[in-house]
Specification:
Layout: H1 2-56, H2 63-78, H3 84-105, H4 109-113, H5 115-150, H6 154-160, H7 174-177
Length: 184
Amino acid sequence: MSTYILLAIVAVALYGVFLYNGLVRARQMAEEAWSGIDVQLKRRADLVPNLVETVKGYASHERETLDAVIAARNRAIAVPAGDVEGRAAAEGVLGQALGKLFALSEAYPDLKANENFLELQRALDSLEGEVQMARRYYNGATRDLNVKVESFPSNLVASRFGFAKKPYFEIDDPADRAVPSVTF
């Protein structure tokens, strides 16, 4: 009889190790996914000053729009590394400001035809697609971790060893989702 008890204890311990390793794997996937978003957002932040400088030459009297883009970019890069919600909000504001900047280009045919502007616009458009893919990957990895943290019996291991849910990278403000309106 004691052999069966010993085997049951060993089986439970092995299952606990299996659950713990699954939680560690899920946490690492979520952290790697956040790193991917962070890299893409950094690339976008680096591209914004070049875009603004190109527009300045054609639309220097549109100072308010240009300043709004730079201010939004600076706020986005100033958000602490682990603040997912803060970064999502700041990136939403930056996205709106960039939308206004591109809408502004419609009023300046010379700017619209400028090769530097077109190249920067294409690069930013491509980068936005990569940000969206990275965000979907992060949210998927976060979902997997959060399910494990909340599901029985892995939630017992998660609470015992300090595993916590991660926030999703999403836009909370409906105004950030709206197409920017620009009037001339």
